């Protein structure tokens, strides 16, 4: 035990004496996670204000209502300009999407509600590099168009005129609707028209269906982030710190492996081997010191996350410690594996960094795995880093219990065992 | 105390060590002398268990080392050819680590570290980072790390490479003191002067084979020449004619230096200088000395140690 303790102590002291490694493994993840967390989500639900251009070629009541609706939407920053300017704005990236409402939009859209007449064609020009905005604009356009078209079809003078036109079209058989359906539809629209007349004759201010409420979304939304506790907002820094912590602690694992190769080159390995030590004592000391260093690094990174960025371990504290220790062991055995497979420190460092970057990329340390294609989400189950990131996510912002940590811990311990076994098998113990 | 016999090792089909064998006794310094690539370091590595021997055995007081953790390994202290030190740590921290590997308790460790530091003259700078040391100081610390657990057998692999004369003398003094304490010391080097000066016995190794193993005096007695006369001159001379002079046994002429092996300097030198003077040779420098291991190695292998 004296020898093991001395080796572990020395390796930890050596690591601490390497200021550059400390800077890379500790300061860099905190800084980068802080940046990513701030950019990609800090839990705030402020409007995103996607810049959008609307070109209203129709200038009808309905098209104006659509434009007004879009302008009032907090998710959008709408400017109304002419068509050429809108296209140019999209091309130059000043707006993400341009919506062009064609001439006759209001009339055609209202008619198309109850007949098979020609539908107006709304053109959308979008910036392909910002295609995420397209879905948002498409959804909001549908919402505001339906509201405007329904209002235009049923409310006020325009609504009455539209209903009359539609009823005439049904009578004349120009609607393209089957005979039996025409009767039913005519009864429905006739009832709506009668209701409009009655309200107008009442002089009621309730000049619309629904008792003055107008046509609106038929439900209200109560949005709540499904985090650990319902009164706590999602903290985007939690995932960023988990991802960056995992990445840079793995870099510490690389340093461990490189350290073994350098020790071999310097003759230190010969000196260690000349002493009455078993292979398990020497290699085990690297695993213990690597686990210790990785645990402390991860602990310090999350301490910074908690103190500086409001991250909380909302899940099981025991689970968090378990995930940290399992990941630390994984890091140490990863370093040992590199030392076993690597030949020179220089060549090994390059390949190891590449391998680590691939692991963290596929493991969801940079971007969450749910944005991956389905096949990749399934494939990355074999990437140990993914289990580390998922485990930290589960124990922090997801606020899950110890049971959610069991699988990540188990898988990481399994990988650690595999790495250690291959390392011991492949390690050049004798020259 | 240390007995090596029949050691074999080959890499890629090439024999690096072939049947090497020798003994090192208590209170004895044995020099393992040979040119670079002769197999000295591989031999040392096999003695310390760093390299698996294909054949042969290494015995410590008649007992072979069994396994990596055999306590008998505590009786060996190795100073590798490389500076096997943690440069980021202090000398004391280095010594503390290597002492701990041999299971010394805290108090014993402290005493042994102090003793090792005093021996190599680094006690006053023990707290400094090794990276701040000179090359000579690092070499001395490298040796101290091999001695800190007070082994019976000390193996030093080329311990003076790149060392200034002052540090080299300090190292020699340390080794002489260790010998006086009864340590068995195996000293590998390719510097014949060191081996001659320091070693009680010399094992000459070439191409993995031991080609001579005896005391310095006995080895020199094997030489056909007792003395060497070296003359730097301008121009060329007829070496066959020189060989015909009285008492001359060997003659070589290389790079303007005429090297003559003779049975006696007093008998041969005057005749040789007179002969060269009568032929108008411009003599720039003359030196004489007794025959060295260099001549022995030359006579045994046909090559110089520095080839």
Give an account of the 3D structure:
- The complex is a heterodimer of chains A (431) and B (307).
- With 431 residues, chain A is mostly helical.
- Chain A contains 16 helices and 4 strands.
- Chain A has helices spanning 2-17, 19-40, 61-72, 83-91, 105-114, 132-154, 156-171, 179-202, 236-266, 268-274, 279-309, 317-341, 345-362, 374-379, 384-395, 403-426; strands at 50-56, 76-80, 97-101, 123-126.
- In chain A, strands 2-1-3-4 form a 4-stranded mixed β-sheet, sandwiched between helices.
- In chain A, strand 1 (50-56), helix 3 and strand 2 form a beta-alpha-beta unit.
- In chain A, helix 9 crosses helix 15 and helix 15 (384-395) runs antiparallel to helix 16 (403-426).
- The longest helix of chain A is centred in the middle third of the chain and has 31 residues, at 236-266.
- The radius of gyration of chain A is 32 Å and the shape is elongated.
- Chain A starts with a helix and ends in a 5-residue tail after the last helix.
- With 307 residues, chain B is an alpha/beta fold.
- Chain B has 2 domains: 2-220, P-loop containing nucleotide triphosphate hydrolases (Rossmann fold); 227-290, Alpha-Beta Plaits, CATH 3.30.70.
- Chain B has 10 helices and 14 strands.
- Chain B has a 6-stranded mixed β-sheet, sandwiched between helices. A 4-stranded antiparallel β-sheet of chain B has the order 2-1-4-5.
- In chain B, strand 7, helix 5 and strand 8 (184-189) form a beta-alpha-beta unit.
- In chain B, helix 2 packs parallel to helix 4 (135-147) and helix 3 (106-119) crosses helix 4 (135-147).
- The longest helix of chain B is centred in the middle third of the chain and has 16 residues, at 165-180.
- The two termini of chain B are 33 Å apart.
- Chains A and B meet through helix 1 and helix 10 of A and helix 2 of B.
């Amino acid at each position: 035990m004296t020898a093991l303790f001395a080796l572990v102590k020395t390796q930890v002291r050596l690591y601490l004496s390497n200021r550059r490694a400390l800077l890379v493994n500790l300061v860099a993840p905190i800084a980068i996670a802080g940046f990513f967390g701030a950019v990609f989500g800090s839990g705030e639900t402020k409007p995103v204000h996607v810049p959008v251009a609307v070109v209203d070629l129709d200038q009808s009541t309905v098209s104006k209502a659509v434009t007004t609706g879009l302008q009032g939407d907090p998710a959008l920053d709408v400017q109304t300009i002419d068509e050429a300017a809108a296209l140019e704005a999209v091309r130059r990236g000043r707006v993400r999407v341009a919506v062009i409402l064609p001439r006759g939009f209001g009339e055609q859209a209202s008619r198309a509600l109850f007949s098979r007449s020609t539908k107006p064609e709304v053109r959308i020009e979008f910036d392909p590099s910002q295609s995420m905005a397209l879905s948002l604009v498409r959804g909001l356009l549908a919402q505001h168009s339906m509201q405007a078209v329904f209002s235009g079809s049923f409310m006020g003078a325009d609504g009455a005129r539209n209903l009359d036109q539609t009823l005439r079209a049904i009578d004349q058989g120009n609607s393209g609707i089957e005979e039996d359906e025409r009767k039913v539809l005519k009864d429905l629209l006739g009832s709506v028209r009668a209701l409009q007349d009655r309200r107008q004759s009442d002089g009621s201010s309730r000049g619309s269906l629904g008792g003055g409420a107008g046509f609106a979304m038929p439900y209200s939304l109560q949005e709540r982030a499904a985090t650990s506790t319902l009164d706590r907002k999602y903290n985007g820094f939690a995932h960023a710190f988990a991802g960056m912590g995992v990445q840079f602690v793995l870099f510490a694992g690389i340093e461990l492996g490189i350290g073994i190769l350098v020790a071999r080159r310097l003759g230190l390995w010969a000196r260690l081997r000349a002493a009455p030590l078993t292979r398990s004592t020497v290699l085990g000391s690297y695993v213990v010191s690597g686990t210790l260093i990785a645990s402390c690094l991860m602990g310090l990174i999350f301490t910074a996350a908690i103190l500086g960025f409001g991250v909380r371990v909302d899940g099981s504290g025991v689970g968090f410690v378990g995930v940290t220790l399992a990941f630390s062991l994984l890091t140490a055995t990863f370093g040992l594996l590199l030392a076993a497979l690597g030949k020179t420190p220089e060549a090994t460092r390059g390949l190891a960094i590449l391998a680590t970057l691939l692991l963290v990329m596929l493991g969801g340390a940079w971007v969450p795995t749910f944005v991956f294609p389905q096949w990749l989400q399934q494939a990355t189950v074999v990437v140990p880093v993914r289990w580390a990131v998922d485990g930290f996510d589960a124990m922090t912002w997801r606020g899950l219990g110890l049971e959610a940590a069991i699988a990540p811990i188990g898988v990481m311990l399994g990988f650690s065992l595999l790495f250690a076994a291959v390392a011991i098998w492949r390690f050049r113990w004798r020259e | 105390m240390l007995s090596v016999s029949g050691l074999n090792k080959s890499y890629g089909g090439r024999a690096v060590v072939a049947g090497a064998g020798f003994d090192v006794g208590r209170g004895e310094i044995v020099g393992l002398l040979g040119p670079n690539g002769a197999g000295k370091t591989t031999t040392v590595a096999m003695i310390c268990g760093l390299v698996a021997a294909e054949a042969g055995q290494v015995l410590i007081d008649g007992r072979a080392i069994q396994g990596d953790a055999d306590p008998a390994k505590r009786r060996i202290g190795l100073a590798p050819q490389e500076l096997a030190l943690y440069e980021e740590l202090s000398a004391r921290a280095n010594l503390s680590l290597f002492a701990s590997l041999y299971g010394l308790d805290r108090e014993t460790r402290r005493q042994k570290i102090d003793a090792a530091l005093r021996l190599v003259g680094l006690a006053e700078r023990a707290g400094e980072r090794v990276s701040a040391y000179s090359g000579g100081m690092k070499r001395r610390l490298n040796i101290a790390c091999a001695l800190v657990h007070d082994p019976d057998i000390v193996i030093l692999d080329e311990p003076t490479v790149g060392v200034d004369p002052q540090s080299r003398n300090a190292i020699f003094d340390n080794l002489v003191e260790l010998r006086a304490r009864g340590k068995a010391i195996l000293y590998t080097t390719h510097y014949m002067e060191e081996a001659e000066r320091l070693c009680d016995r010399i094992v000459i190794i070439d191409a993995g084979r031991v080609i001579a193993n005896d005391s310095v005096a006995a080895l020199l007695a094997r030489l056909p020449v007792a003395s060497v006369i070296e003359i730097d001159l301008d121009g060329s001379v007829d070496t066959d004619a020189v060989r015909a002079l009285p008492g001359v046994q060997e003659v070589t002429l290389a790079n303007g230096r005429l090297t003559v092996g003779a049975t006696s300097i007093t008998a041969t030198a005057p005749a040789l200088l007179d002969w060269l003077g009568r032929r108008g040779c411009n003599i720039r420098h003359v030196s004489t000395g007794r025959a060295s291991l260099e001549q022995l190695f030359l006579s045994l292998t046909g090559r110089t140690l520095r080839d």
